[in-house]
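pasting for ref
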Amino acid sequence: MFFKESVLSSISMVIHCLTKKNDFILMHTPIYHPFFLITRRMGRNDISSPLVYKNKSYSIDWLNFEEKVAKAKLFILCNPQNPGCRCWNLEELTTMVEICKKYNVPIISDEVHADLTMPGYKHIPLAKACPKYEKQIITLMAPTKTFNLAGIKASFYITTNIEFLRKFHTYTNEHSDFPLNTLGKIALNAAYSGSADWVDNLNDYIISNYNYVKSEVARHCPSIIVTNLEATYLMWLNCRALNVEEEALYEALLENKVDVQIGSDFGEEGIGFIRINIACPKKILKIGLSRIIAGIRAL
């Protein structure tokens, strides 16, 4: 385990060390939008393997995925998936790794939402699911999402590849990139020591908020499709049936004094969706949701 100030700084480091200018970096889309920004800022090309949306959930187009892996020098995986709310199962993870192994493509596995799994689902670390390929896997984790600690700048990465580690340490020294500050160390240790019951209660609260949003949307905006929540505290709402431009939807919500993240931020496949954060007190959620519903019904 090696410490960094953030998951995104770790991704920058890995891209710098394991790829070259104009190389292709693969990711499933829709996906957390900073991954695009980092890839492009560093002079690499992002290529996507679009996830398939059906029955309120996402699955992988395996033929497309292999076609894209064959071109890539690195694969960035969201495990669990953000914004698609998927908690990838063992079969899916194993198949992804087998395809990457075929083309010798290293994998960044962003597992920052690992603790935030809903009833009936269990997060499986990629390196644990596929130990025979662990030397080509860099796992990224942080307490920042689960414990709302983004401000402390604390994360860590895990790999068993000595060659990778030498490159990462050289990069760290060259960029004067230092490990955690004192507050970050204390907060990270506190978060992961004796907080299991608190996390269980948190997940219970999140699923309660999810069920509330789901029932209210079904009652007031039945054309909106609520994506199944398997993991994360972020809901992904399919608004395509409204048949309005994304900008018009966003403006209607702003006029009702509520802000959301529009789907196109997460790639072309996100157009027509909105993402909302439900990790908040229910009284706040009720206010925000009422404004979302009012904005949608005003269209």
